[in-house]
Amino acid sequence: MRLVCAVVLFLVTVHGAYAGDDASGPTLYSVDLASPALARVYLLEAQKSAAQVQQDFTRKQLLDEIAAALAKTGDYDGALQIVHGIYPSGLEAFKEIGTGMVADDKVAEAKAMARRLPKESHSLLYFVATAQAQAGQVEAAIATANTIDALEVKREAMRNIAAAQVRAGNLSAARETYRNWPEPEPGPSETPAVLADRITAAMAEALVAKDFQAALKMASGVRSPQEKEETYFGIVFALIDTGDTAHAKVALSQLQEVAGHRVSYPMSYVLAKVGLMSEALETARAIQGPDPESSDAQAKALTTIAILRAERGDANAALKTVAEIGTHERKPRPMTEFLRHEALLSVARAQTNAGDSRGAIETVKGVPLSTLADSVLKDAVLFETAYAWAKAGEFSQALAVAKQMHKGQVGLVPCERADAMRTLAAIQAHMGDAVSAALWASSLPEAIDRTAAYLGIAEGLEGKRGLETQEFFLH
What we know:
With 475 residues, the protein is mostly helical. Helix content is 65%, strand content 3%. β3 (409-410) and β4 form a beta hairpin.
């Protein structure tokens, strides 16, 4: 039942988890459940836990994520306060602050914020200018970009603005914007011809969604073979991102003339995406050669086909596709085995997202933990199992599995367990049980895990439901 404007005393139980906290009783918050204030409560708890993370780099990464989540709730000042203490981190937070303030028509306030950030003002201004361009406010975006003092950052902002001009059909203005790109240190290879190719390539990629034929014509005019290949790839990816697989297939055919066999992997993906599974498999199977690169490309192609089959509810066909990985090798290489295991985990993720959590758990069993020497892959197996249990609403099982993962971090990189805690908490909160998620989050002994879990609760309340999409590495 939807609670509208209900003001309640919200209870977060903290079992003495924080060294400086009063462990004599729970913390009470007055919270409006119909507002983002409830998410902010959990972000405050996340911030408390993050302060206890010993490794400086990791602590700043977590605080950046917390600040970004806080900005999504509309608390831009609170997000900025966090960012002040984590320089030079803060990129995620700046993105959400800049994007959100443009959407809320608070550009003047955002620029005033930037003036209070002498070391990182260009990051915030970049995201403000980019958001303005995406909203069609091109002249305002140019004005904002011109206040950026870091030349590389300004160049990227101008590129985004020019792309917006192309999408709006203003090609002459876009060419002028591209020509005005600041070049901090032009090298000897950056001749006028090379720069002209870059402009043409960037415009072709930006134009493809609006005028496919015009984009292809532009791409064909790029003189540098390498730049032309990159341009066609950019067009293909742009079309795939928008779901225009019919045109993507046409663009791939032209790319094949330029790049040869290197397009077989993305071609198999596009064919599978449009439902031509037999052709997709035929294309993937044709990727053969004595070199490891060909074997890896075939494995990736078969993996993408298997994922798409699983997403469409055909788990058996997906698993048969995975079984083909490495069959052409006389003796499968360790990397081939690794890719096959990764493929099984990707299929399991697709099954979970398609509502078949039980099937996903069975699929994951195809990667036996006892034979895995790679601790990262072991954690990946446990992660997918925990994720499947959580999406099925079985949080006690999910948490028990997640706790078997490696804790803490390796060097500067936090272990996958923190991500698992964050994901499980987000799912449970989105399902309407943030209080139960907070109870187990408060009991986690590791500060990294506890921080991630509280952050996940806030994200779940703001709409995150889990890991609904998978990345396809097509290049």
